[in-house]
Amino acid sequence: MMLEDVIKDIEIEIKKFQERVAVLEEVSLLGESSISSKYKDLLKKRNYGFYYLIFLVVILIVELAVLMFLKSRYGFRLSGLTYVLLAILASLSLVILASMFRPREEDSLEDKILMYKSIVRFYGKLKESLERNDKETIQRLADEILEEPILAKALEFINVGEPKVIAYALYLYANEDKVEKSEIQEVIPLVRGPIRRLLESSVGGGHED
Length: 209
Hints:
Blueprint lengths: L2 H30 L2 H40 L5 H21 L8 H24 L2 H13 L1 H9 L5 H12 L6 H7 L5 H11 L6
Helix pairs in contact: 1-4, 1-9, 2-3, 4-5, 4-6, 5-7, 7-9, 8-9
């Protein structure tokens, strides 16, 4: 793959994420003015509360059934304190369940917009650096990945690869005249997208994504 092809791929990625930013910003604006979105959040919370309540009732029924069985079989006497302890035990079980299975909050629209914008900026800088054959700026981009959490998270989120590996890949490309081709080839399978194709252009390979 030629470097010109890599630059075209980067341009495609930039356009793709610019479009995603535009769509998400529009959705975000609509969501802020939409009463239905607030109702959806409220219903979601109520649904979880409903499931927890059902679980609590099931626990109490099971515990009472076990105690009634023991009472009828072995003649145990159940005091009021026993029922209080049962209620406490059921409540504790519910708290533990809620903490274990609390739904993980997904990235908000604002988070995704920030990440996609950081990707657009990153690819924009990379494209300009490649067009000027500016290896020094490419190496600074590698440092930027390690220094900017949002960019690192964004690259991982869009499945380009692990941030440290991507930074290393850019470092290798920026110093391709000082490193062995085998070092670059070892990293190629660990990254995807334009970064992978950039390394392939360096070693003259044609690996598949």
